[in-house]
Amino acid sequence: MFIAANFVSALATVLGYLLEFYSWIIIIRALISWVNPDPYNPIVQFLYKITEPVLYPIRKMMGSYNIGIDLSPLVVLLIIMFLKQFLVSSLFELASRLR
Question: Which DSSP helix (H) or strand (E) runs through 64?
Answer without folding.
Answer: none
